[in-house]
Design goal:
- By secondary structure, the protein is α/β, with parallel strands linked by helices.
- It has two domains: about 80-325, TIM Barrel, CATH 3.20.20; about 345-395, no CATH class.
- It has helices spanning about 1-15, 85-95, 105-115, 125-130, 140-155, 175-190, 200-210, 225-230, 240-255, 270-275, 300, 310, 325-340, 355-370, 370-385, 390-395, and strands at about 100-105, 120-125, 160-165, 190-195, 215-220, 260-265, 280-285, 295.
- An eight-stranded parallel barrel has the order 1-2-3-4-5-6-7-8, surrounded by seven helices.
- α7 links the parallel β4 and β5.
- It is elongated, with a radius of gyration of 29 Å.
- The termini are far apart.
- Its EC number is 2.1.2.11.
- It is an enzyme of class 2 (transferase).
């Protein structure tokens, strides 16, 4: 606790109203800013036998036929949540409220991120590593990123969605950058795009994309797409000159029209300085607690990868909030074992039945067609259901 207190000390001495304004003090008990996604209360139905004029009420509609799916629990219709917009994010930043951000790469992760109530969801080019097994982010293409965006969009109904421009999709020219951004917006269905770097060509690209009517998030510090030029995944801003360059890069991206800037793998004082210098939010990843918000990779924070080979690429700055990989491994091993011991599926997971009269008719039809082995299998199945094990004969 004392270590974290020391980290927070610079916040007091900065005394910069643009960094942490007095209005940033928030009452934990306040509910007015919380997003309400609770489904409407259930009301019991009251059957009325007659209408007001004494006439009998119409007969109730027959029940719907049983569906094939629906094994995951009751389907509840919830009210559509309010979408997060740029105005929402600017409001949070103005009030000094932290901005939450996480990555997602497919429909299930989009659903989870949305249900958790995150402000921003990034469909990152990190998909190249966590979804496709590459050693870095460079191999993923624009078409693949767009497909990931589509999938996440189907699951994320309220979160502000950011799509990454992958390596090779915006470096050649400003028109190429604009064209790529337009594709990610139109085909991917995102709310904004993100691009890496602060070289003059990247600043020009960011400005042109903003002028095309597309919101842009910048990304400086460690920029994974520049791993070749950087000599690996290395922190940035560790010398005075490079620290000043980080702050200047952030200001340049702000001047280009970016609505936020990601600061990756820079020392906490450098991130604090950039945050204080800017009038737009900073989103930290491995940049300490003094940013306007934080982002982590979905798979990293959930502990999706438990294999020793993945330990060497686990970021030092990431806190692991779960051991989902262990849970997945245990579940898969249990399922495999139950299949091999023929304990799955049991009666509770064999829901589809033939009526007794239909079983007899089915048997007769099989015999008539000369399918005697099939008829024996049906008889053995009936014996098993009635308590006489015949599995070996059924599958012989």
């Amino acid at each position: 606790m004392s270590q974290f207190s020391r980290l927070l000390t610079p916040r007091v001495h900065l005394n910069n109203s643009g960094f942490f304004p007095p209005s940033s003090i928030i009452s934990p008990s306040s509910l007015s800013r919380q997003l309400r996604c609770t489904p409407p209360p259930h009301h019991s139905r009251v059957s009325r036998r007659a209408t007001s004029n004494g006439a009998p009420a119409p007969s109730p509609a027959p029940p719907e036929p049983a569906a094939v799916y629906g094994g995951g629990g009751a389907n509840q219709q919830a009210a559509a949540p309010r979408r997060v917009t740029l105005a929402t994010l600017r409001g949070k930043h103005r009030r000094g409220e932290p901005i939450s951000m996480v990555t997602a790469y497919d429909y299930p992760s989009g659903v989870h991120v949305d249900a958790a109530g995150f402000d921003i969801c990034l469909v990152g080019d990190s998909a190249a590593m966590v979804s496709h097994g590459h050693d870095n982010t460079l191999p993923i293409s624009l078409d693949v990123i767009i497909e990931h965006c589509r999938s996440v969009k189907r699951g994320a109904a309220r979160t502000f969605l950011v799509g990454d421009l992958p390596f090779g999709s915006y470096e050649s020219s400003t028109p190429q950058a604009v064209d790529s951004a337009v594709r990610v917006m139109k085909e991917g269905g995102v709310d904004s795009i993100k691009l890496e770097g602060s070289a003059p060509s990247r600043i020009s690209a960011a400005k042109a994309i903003v002028e095309a009517g597309i919101a842009v998030m910048g990304h400086i510090g460690l920029t994974p797409q520049s791993v070749s030029a950087l000599g690996g995944f290395r922190p940035q801003g560790k010398t005075v000159d490079s620290a000043i360059k980080v702050v200047e890069a952030a200001l340049a991206l702000q001047d280009a029209g970016c609505f936020a800037v990601v600061l990756e793998c820079v020392p906490a004082p450098v991130a604090a300085a950039a945050t204080a210098a800017l009038q737009i939010p900073t989103i930290g990843i491995g940049a300490g607690p003094f940013c306007s918000g934080q982002v982590l990779v979905y798979h990293d924070l959930l502990g999706m990868f438990q294999h020793p080979l993945h330990a060497k690429v686990a970021p030092k700055f990431c806190k692991q909030y779960g051991n989902i990989g262990d849970a997945i491994n245990r579940a898969l091993s249990q399922y495999k074992q139950e299949v091999e011991t023929q304990s799955f599926p049991g009666p509770s997971h064999t829901p589809y039945k033939l009526a007794a009269t239909d079983v007899d008719a089915f048997l007769n039809a099989l015999v008539d067609k000369g399918l005697n082995a099939a008829a024996d299998a049906v008889e053995n199945t009936e014996k098993e259901i009635n308590g006489t094990p015949q599995l070996n004969k059924i599958y012989a």
